[in-house]
Amino acid sequence: MQASTWDVGESLHLSLLEKDSLLTALVVETTCHNVRVSLDPSEIPPIDATASGLCVLSFGLPYLLDPLAQEEHTRYTNTTLTDPTEIKELVATVSQTGWANSNGSYENGVYGYAAPNIWI
What we know:
Blueprint (H helix, E strand, L loop, with lengths): L11 E7 L2 E8 L22 H9 L6 H5 L13 H14 L2 E4 L7 E4 L6
Antiparallel strand pairs: 1-2, 3-4
Helix pairs in contact: 1-3
């Protein structure tokens, strides 16, 4: 069986911005692995601790960055950034590279990769 260019064998989800929160619009879970991450579509993930959120902050409207300096940031794991300056630096890096990754910053052992929708 020939794999298509879309067949990567990993789970994916599509996030959308609603006001200043991430919402999950679509979840496709892989069946290629015995162990996998499961995403609850009703959960509202943090915008500052996920790869999807970092993309939204990097490529979304500038007002989304305003709360970063004004809010206390929750530490979900030992790799979660909580310092507003460090988060803004990471957002700038994502803007330059065109994609984001999270190294267990929201949930230990979960690595996320995200890119913005190029049609926006």
